Amino acid sequence: MAASGGYRNGTHKGNTKVDRLGSLGSATKSSSLKSKPSPASPAASGLRRNSTGSVGGAKDDAGVPGRVRVAVRLRPKNAEELVADADFADCVELQPELKRLKLRKNNWDTDTYEFDEVLTEFASQKRVYEVVAKPVVESVLDGYNGTVMAYGQTGTGKTYTLGRLGEGDTAARGIMVRALEDIFAEISPETDSVSVSYLQLYMETIQDLLDPANDNISIVEDPKTGDVSLPGATLVEIRDQQSFVEMLRLGEAHRFAANTKLNTESSRSHAILMVHVKRSVKGRDSTLSSENGNSSLMVKTFKPPVVRKGKLVVVDLAGSERIDKSGSEGHTLEEAKSINLSLSALGKCINALAENSAHVPVRDSKLTRLLRDSFGGTARTSLVVTIGPSPRHRGETSSTIMFGQRAMKVENMLKIKEEFDYKSLSRRLEIQLDKLIVEHERQQKVFDDEVERITVEAQNRISETERNYADALEKERLKYQEDYMQSIKKLEEQWVMNQRKHASERTTSGLKDDNFDKELNGAVPVASAAEKTAELKKLLQNEASLRAAAEEEINNLKSQVVQWKRLEAAGNAEILKLRKMLEDEALRREKLEEEITILQSQLFQLSFEADETRRQLDRGGSGKVLGDLDSFMSQIRHSQLSDSGNGDKASMAKLFEQVGLQKILSLLEAEDADVRIHAVKVVANLAAEETNQKKIVEAGGLSSLLMLLRDSEDETIQRVAAGAIANLAMNETNQELIMSQGGISLLSITATHAEDPQTLRMVAGAIANLCGNDKLQIKLRGEGGIKALLGMVRCGHPDVLAQVARGIANFAKCESRASSQGTKNGRSLLIEDGALPWIVQNSNNEASPIRRHIELALCHLAQHEVNAKDMISGGALWELVRISRDCSREDIRTLANRTLNSSPTFQSELRRLRI
């Protein structure tokens, strides 16, 4: 009686299948292992030599064709078979040298099959790994996906081949353990990483072997690429081999197993080991020196490093079994049915792929969905089919061999998985930026100290020069003053002596007689006059000599003054030189600040691009949002989010719940421009979800966004704010609020001043959404909405023109509806604002989105008879005729025909033109 299913406890009994196979496999002889190289070996080596591919695993690049490689492994006879089949020959005969297998039909007839590798019962675990799994592991290390799978009847050694831990005998290690040993030997712990998930597919439910409580994991498929992911599975980063072995032991303990007639420890679930290998590609970086040529400021180029992401999937399928032979009953019978159904679905997919069928039923089972990439996909796949020698199970053995034969016909297209490592680049740029800031601060301090020293030295020299000059001038002044006073004193003494002399001479001459006086009257005056003349000449000569001496002293003083002036000019020149040096240092400082600003802007731009790229490439990643808002904003600004999927809607919703909308909205008024930019991005992402829009509006988010649009001069903020308003404008209630708060005027002003095509696209999208509201037609036109739309066509960017065309089509549709209901009379407001020439000009635009919206707009305008004459004079009639005949969309073509037939004015004009 078969025992009911239960958890595998991880211990191996002495009489189980794995120990018997391991004990016989240990007696392997080296001579029996010799075989020709497998046909796929050159392809494997070539794959490693030519593993450089285009960057971006999500691109549809041409791949490398690779057929599914299939090896067959024969299990040794167990104790029961040695007794029961002692009188019978084995049902299979192996020819490993020829890579052939013969299956006996009876004693005289056999069928021969060829495989990529034929492994006898004496083949060692190492031999099996090298020929089956090692080429796949090497491909995974090169950035490709790879799959190793074991298929066969229950009890034929699948789990032994793949999952044996080999703790007692290292030679008995299975493919899982050996594969991780090779991976750890090749990767670099500093730059590479290995993450592992271990799952089981039990009764069509996917369960986590590392977290048994997680027992219903859903499968997520990327609608664009078709890639399959399991976002709910536990992903553990492994650092060494011992941790991996412990993880395998934990997973095996949680796997379902049961005791049947065919196997004492029969696996009741399909085990799936997923190993994610992320490796950095070396040799892609180059260095670039800064503009000032300083070797200490060498910076890396801003091309992000390339990483290769390979995934190794090891699948231990549960064995197929016949109920009458296994003796399953009760719950074990239900397990057997589920196993056989999933294996049957896998066989149908293999048959369809082998026959190149147009339809492959991959959705019939979760097993086939999980293995979608392994058969007919982009993975390198190796399959080992395990068989037993007993003739009693010839039917099961034949079925297993035919499964392998069909699998050999399946062709995969191998594609490398490469992408830019924006997170690593951001970290590297942050480190470089910190180094530049520290270097700048150090140089700035040295510069300030040098300037201060030179300034103090110059001031001291100038002060000393001024003091010396003043002292010298004072000394010369005192000297000349003293000489002058002495000269004046000498002249006064000389004058007094002359006066005394003249007085004595007059007294002496009065005592003589008159005769003598008469005689001398004619001579004495002449003698005294001669003496006086001589004295005067002498005095004049003295004065002249004194004057010459004074002039000489004055000339000396002048020369000294000129010399001091020259010294002063030299001092002034040195001061000018110092000022020039100060100006040069200031320019260098400004230049360094500009470089830092550029690096910061590039850092934040790369952060934004990383979020966008991860949103496109890593749909399956599950980000972890921090609970504190300040920590979250710090993480965004440093581009170090914990996982690659932080831009996903689930992460935004989690942030919304944990942080709170009020805290996020409060950051819209932060002083730091970068914080405001990231905050408005978060609000824009939240506004994309309809469930969040009402909460954002009630919390004042719409008013804050309109305030940013009005007050901010940063075009990035304006662009993201306009995008958030466009998301909110998809709701009719929000449209009326936007109009009542002057939103259309702010959008029109932004459209007038913006030049960036992405900003114009966001603004045009917001106005286009508002154009679809019947109640806001007059007000929207009155506040310049139509003029703003037509003004944005100056950009010429296809995305902007598509949004303008959508807005015009929405406005024309609302006008047509109002005219048919009798609530509007007169010409179209679009025609009055001069939109018709542009509509006619672009009605046959090469871009299909623009052309489709313009064709709809023309049809809606033509439905109102009062617009017919303007449309005829503007050339729109010819475009309507073309649309009714050549439009690719049947609904638009039908609308154009109905409009032409229902308008008398158009019919009259067509008859006049004989159309």
For the secondary structure, the number of strands is 22
Distance N to C terminus: 89 Å
Radius of gyration from the alpha-carbon trace, in angstroms: 50 Å
Structural class: alpha+beta
Indicate the low-confidence ranges by residue numbers: 1-61, 285-300, 618-649
Shape: flat
Q: What summary fits the major beta sheet?
A: 10 strands, mixed
**How many H/I helices?**
34
Q: Which bin fits the share of residues in helices? A: 55-70%
Look at the structure and give the mean pLDDT: 79
Q: How would you describe the overall organization of this protein?
A:
It is flat, with a radius of gyration of 50 Å. Helices cover 57% and strands 11% of the residues. Mean pLDDT is 79; it is low at 1-61, 285-300 and 618-649. Helix 23 (743-753) packs antiparallel against helix 24. It has 915 residues and is α+β, with helices and mostly antiparallel strands. It has 34 helices and 22 strands. The strands form 6 sheets. Strands 3, 7, 8, 9, 10, 13, 16, 19, 20 and 22 form a 10-stranded mixed sheet that branches.
